[in-house]
Amino acid sequence: MAQVPGSRTGVLDDGILDDANLSEQMILCRVVPDDSISLVDITILDCSESNFRATEWLELDRTVLTKAMTVDLIGYPGDYTLTYARKTQGLDPRFEKSKYRDIEDLLPRYELTVTHGTVTRGGGMPSYRVSTIGGMSGSPIIVNGKVVGIA
Question: Could you tell me which of 39, 40, 48, 106 has the fewest CB atoms within 10 Å of its CB?
Answer without folding.
Answer: 39
